[in-house]
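Ticket reopened. Same input as before:
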Amino acid sequence: MTLNEFGSSNGKTVLVTGGAGYIGSHTVVELIENGYDCVIVDNLSNSSYESVARLEVLTKHHIPFYHADLCDHEKLETVFKENKIDSVIHFAGLKAVGESTQIPLKYYHNNILGTLVLLELMQKYDVEKFVFSSSATVYGDATRFPDMIPIPEECPLGPTNPYGNTKYTIEKILNDLYNSQTDLWKFAILRYFNPIGAHPSGLIGEDPLGIPNNLLPYMAQVAVGRREKLNIFGNDYETRDGTPIRDYIHVVDLAKGHIAALKYLDNHENKNKTGICREWNLGSGKGSTVFEVYRAFCDACGEDIPYEVTGRRAGDVLNLTAKPDRAKEELQWQTELDVEVACRDLWKWTTDNPFGYQLNGIESTFASPENKYNARFVTIGAGSKFQATLANLGATIVDMKVDGQSVVIGYKDEAGYNCGPSSCYIGATIGRYANRIAHGKFQMNGEKYNLTINNGVNTNHGGLGSFHIKRFLGPLVKNPSKGVYTAEYMLIDKDQDTEFPGDLEVDVLYTLNVEEKSLKIEYHATVDGKATPLNMTNHTYFNLNKVNNPYITGTELQVINDRSIDVDENTIPTGKIITREIKTFKDEQATILGPQEPKYDHCYVVDEHKVPAGPDTIKDGTLTVVARAYHPESKIGLEVSTTEPSYQVYTADWLEAGYLPRQGFAVEPGRYVDAVNDERYKRCVTLNPGETFGSEIVFRFY
Amino acid sequence: MTLNEFGSSNGKTVLVTGGAGYIGSHTVVELIENGYDCVIVDNLSNSSYESVARLEVLTKHHIPFYHADLCDHEKLETVFKENKIDSVIHFAGLKAVGESTQIPLKYYHNNILGTLVLLELMQKYDVEKFVFSSSATVYGDATRFPDMIPIPEECPLGPTNPYGNTKYTIEKILNDLYNSQTDLWKFAILRYFNPIGAHPSGLIGEDPLGIPNNLLPYMAQVAVGRREKLNIFGNDYETRDGTPIRDYIHVVDLAKGHIAALKYLDNHENKNKTGICREWNLGSGKGSTVFEVYRAFCDACGEDIPYEVTGRRAGDVLNLTAKPDRAKEELQWQTELDVEVACRDLWKWTTDNPFGYQLNGIESTFASPENKYNARFVTIGAGSKFQATLANLGATIVDMKVDGQSVVIGYKDEAGYNCGPSSCYIGATIGRYANRIAHGKFQMNGEKYNLTINNGVNTNHGGLGSFHIKRFLGPLVKNPSKGVYTAEYMLIDKDQDTEFPGDLEVDVLYTLNVEEKSLKIEYHATVDGKATPLNMTNHTYFNLNKVNNPYITGTELQVINDRSIDVDENTIPTGKIITREIKTFKDEQATILGPQEPKYDHCYVVDEHKVPAGPDTIKDGTLTVVARAYHPESKIGLEVSTTEPSYQVYTADWLEAGYLPRQGFAVEPGRYVDAVNDERYKRCVTLNPGETFGSEIVFRFY
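Engineering reply: fixed in the latest deploy. New output:
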C-alpha cells in the first residue's frame, strides 16, 4: 500500500460512524489514502479503540475520535460543532441477525434512532452527502422471485429478520428524506454482501466481542483454538453441496467501494444541481457455499479445522449473490480480491492477533480531563512482575514497576506533563535534538537555522514545541510472544513544526520483556525534503528506592567510564574530552549518592576513539552497558545499555515542576553535546533524505 | 348513550396514548362505558387538554392525565410507576400524510421512537397487551394488485408516503417483538380506514390545529366560515365521479372496534398460553367518493359549501376500501353508523364548537406545583371587562375582576385552599350541607347519621372532606354566544365519601355574561341509592374596594330585609324568626361597614311565609335580589340574587388562613340553618332518588 505523503489532504473531512469497527476501520484506511481526513464516532459497543490507535500508525495520520452513541444528540452535536464535516459514512449499528431476533427493540432503537439523530444533525449543519451501510439482507429470500439470482438492485425488498428490517427502514427514511428535498440530499445506499478478510498489513481486522456471528471470524477462532469447532447451520439447502450460497467480498474491496461511492457523490455535487438517492450492491457477483469457504480457509491456515453441521438458523436464506453491474458501471468499482486472498489475509490477521484487539497484560486509562481518546496512558505488562506505563504525549514513560514497585517519577495525567517553560521532560522522548545546541544555531547544507533559546544561551532538548509535548500517533500495541509486549508510537514532525528542516517521521518502539525485566526503546526515523539534525533520547528520572524514600539518597551509581565532554561556563563544549574524578564501573565500586552531593550533569563518552559513521547506531554500533545503579534498601538494580556513543548523567539538581531536586536521576544516552556544530561529530547527527536514523536504549532491572 | 353507573369498573386500567386526540378521546368514552379505567398520556402537539376535561364531565370519571411525550423515557416511566397498567392503546403519533412528505425525519423520530420507548417500558413493567393504531395507508395503492379491492389484511403492504412508512415500520416492530417471545405478547394491529364524524353529544370531535388535512374537518371549517372553500385533490381518478374512493367510518364505530380488540386480547389471555400478534381492518366495507361525502355533508349542514377541484395530492391513491370480514368474524365487530349519521354528528360538533376546543376569552393555568392537569384555574371572559377565575378544587371562585379590578379574595394556587382545619372556604362550593347541622346529627328515612363536629358543637359546611376540598371533574367550558361563557364542573360524591348517605352527582354550572357583568351559579344534583340532605352555596368573600384597601371598611351594605333565624349560644336555631336591628335595602339606606362594626353572621330569611316545597328552587322558586353592596371609593356595586329561601351574611370577623378579619364579606344564599332537623324545613333540604336538586345564585356588578 502506498500512503499519501503528508499534506496531500483534499481538504474534505468525512465523519465515519462506527469507524472503529470492522468495515469502518478498513474504510478509514482507504479514505486517508484517497486524501480525505477522517473523524470517527463510535460507541465501542462491539469494537475497540485499539483499532483506531492502530489506524493512526498505519495511516500516519491523527484521527479524531469521539466515544459517543449516535442516539445521544447532545454528544453527537459536539462532533459537528468541532469539525467541519463534508460528508458522512454511516457504519454504526447493531448487526447480528441472530441476536436481532432475540432483542428486536434494541435493534430498532439503536439503529433507527442513531440514524435519525445523525440525519437531523446533518440537516442542521448543512452536511448533505451520506453513504449508508445497508445490507443485502434487505432483499430477504430473493429466490422467492423467478430470475432474481444474482440479485439486482431492482429486486423487491423483503427482509426476514429484525436486523434486516432496521436496514430496510433506514433505506426508506433516506428515500423519504431525499424526496422531501430532492435538490439537496446526496445519498448512496450500499448493500453489502458478505464482507470477509482483513487488511494485508495484519494490523486491523474483524474482532467481534463475544461469540462471532459470522462464518469467517468463527472459523478463525476455531483455527487458533479459541473455539472447539465450527457450526455449519444446515447442509440441506438446494445448492451444489447443501450449504447456503453467499457472495463473499474482501473487506478491502468493500472499503474501496465506499470511496467510489463518495467520489460519485462528490462528482454529482459538482456536476448537477440536483440531489440523488441511489442504491448499489457491493458484491463480487460470484457465490460461494459455506463448504467452499471452509475449504479455502483450511488451505490458508494449513489444517482442516473441525466442524459440525447443525440445524438451519432462523432468518437465513438460500442464496444471496449480487448482481454487481450497477456499481461497476456507475461507480467504476468492482472487486479485485478473491476468497482465497481474503482467507490468507484473515489468517495473517488471526495469527498476528489471535485475540484480536483484546490483549492480556494491556491496560488503558484516560490521561486528560476531557477523556480524549488519544490522550491515553497504556500499560504494557500490566499485572506482571515488570510493567511500563506509556503516554501518547511525548511517547513518555509515565511509570515502570518492578515487582509492583514504581521506580521512576511521573505525573498522574497530561496536565503535569504540559507544565510549560518549567517542564523537566520527565520520562519524555526528547527530540529533534537532545542535549544542547550552542546559541541555538546550526547550519545544514549551507542553510543557517536559529532555534528558540530555552536554556541559558543555548537551546536544550529541541526547539519550540519539541517532541516531549507532541501527541504521538498510536500506539500500536502487540504481544508477539509470551511475556513480551511492544508499543509503537509514531510522530510526523513536518518541516519547521519544531523549527527544524525537513519532514521527519519518527517511530518510537518500546519492547517490554517481563522475564528479563527490561524495557527496550528503539528510535527510528526518516526525513523527507531536507536534511535535519537528529539526536534522540529518553528522559526518565529513576528513583530505585521510591517506595521507601522520595529522594535518591543512598543510590549506588556506577558509570562505565570517566571520560566526559568538557564544557565552558555556558555549558558549551570546549572541544576537549576530560576525565572527571568519580568512582567508575571499571573500579567495580559505586558512587553513593548523598542528599546533595555528588552532583552529576555531564555527558560521558563511551569510546572517544570511536565516533559513529552515520545516523543509525543500531545498524553500525553495538549495545554497550553504560551505567548501573542499585539501592540497598529496595534491593532493586538498574542497568542502562545503549548503541549511542555518549550519555548524559544527571542527578536532577535543578528538578522542579512539582518535584524537588534529587528526587530522581537520569541516564540519557544520545549523541555528543552540540555535535551539530562540531565537524568531528556532525555526520552522526545529520539525517539526510534516503537515510535511516536508529538508536537503542535498554533499561534492565535486577 | 348509557354510561355505567359508579363502581362498575372492571378493575383494569388502560393506558391511552394520544387520548386527548380525535380517535383517542372517543375511545376513552367507550372504554369507560365498558368498565375500564383510563390513564391518558398526550404531548398535546395536535390536541387540547380541553377534550380531557370534557371527557371527565361526559364520562363522569376522573381521568388521570400526563402531559408527556412518549420519546421522553423518564417522564413516561412515571406513568407506569404511578399506575397499575393492564394494557395499552397506542394512538399517539403524527398523522398528516402531506406534512410527512415535507418533514419525514420528524415523523420517523416521533412515531417510531415513541412506540419503542412505550414498548420498552411495557416490557419492563410486565404489560403485555397492546392495541396499535395503524392505518390502511400501510397498504399503499392496493389497486396495483388484481382483486385486492376491498382490501383484505393479507394484501401485500406498500405504503407510499413517510407517514405510512412509520405505521408500516411499527407493524414490523410489533411482529418482530412478538416473534422474540411468542408466549408473551398480545398485539392487536388495527388498520383504520377513514374515521369521520364526532360524538353525538357534541362535546368531543376532531379539532385539528392549523389547516385540517382531512376532508371532513376541512368541509366543516368551510361550512362555519373559517375557510373559504374546499379543495378537492383531483377529479381525474378512475372512479364513478373521478374523485378517490375511501372507506369512511364513524369515529364512534371505530372507538368500539378498539374495545372489541381489547376484549379479544383479554379473552385470548384467559384462554391461551400463547401470545398473539394480528392485524384487523377497521372499516365499513363500503367505499364513498369525495363527492359523495361532500353531498352528505352539505345535506347535513343545509347548504352547498363552495369547493374547487385542484391537482392530485402526493401520496394519495385511488381506492382504499376495507374488506372488514376478519374483524366481524373474530372481533364480533362491525360498523353500525353510516356516512350520513357521521355528517350529522360532525355538524352538531361543529355548530356547538365552531372553533373546536380553541375558545377566545378562556385561559388556563396550573394551580399545583406539580402542574397536574386537573389542578387548574380556568378564567372565563379573560381579557374582557368582566372575568371570573375558577378552580377544579372545590369548583371554587378564585377571582372575579370588574373592569380589570379584583373584587374578591383568593389564593394564588391550590396550596392556599388546602389549608386544613383553619380553612375559611374562601370562594368555594359548599356541600353537601351548607351552614350548620346541630351537633352533627340528623335522621334520614329512619336512619341516624353522625357527622364529624368541626364548629363548636356543630358540623358546619359539610362533613369530613366536604366539597370545598374535592377535586371536581371538568370543567366543560363553552362560549354559547358572544360575551357569554359557561364552565360546568361535576362531582361524584359517593355514599359515605363525606359521611352523607347516597351516591350524589352534583353539577356546578357557572355562566358569565360580560355585558351584564354577572356570574350565575347553578347547582344541580341527583342522588342514587339513598336520600340525602343537601344544601349548597358559594362562599365568596367580596371586597369591592380591594384595589384600594385590603379591608372592607366603607362598604355600603344593603340587605333585603331584617328577618333572621334566631340561634342560641351554640349557634343552634331556637326555632324563632326574629328581627335584627339593621338598616335594610327596603329603607333604601345602606349600612356602612366600619373597621370593626357592625358584625354580621346571621341567616336572613327571604320570605318567612314561603318555604320551598321541594329540593329544586330553580323550578319552584323565583330569582330575588337579596343584597346589594357598593363602595364609593372604587365605585363598584354588587347585587346578589338567588332562588334560595335564606342567605347568610357574614362580615368575616373570624377570617384567618392567610387573611385577617374583615378583609371580605360573604353573602351565602342557601336553605335554613339546621333545616334537616326542623320538620318545617326538612323537605326542602331532602333529596330523594328520582328527584332533582336545583338552586341558583347570581352575582351581578354595576
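The longest strand of chain A covers residues 503-513. The two ends of chain A are 43 Å apart (CA to CA). Please confirm and we'll close it.
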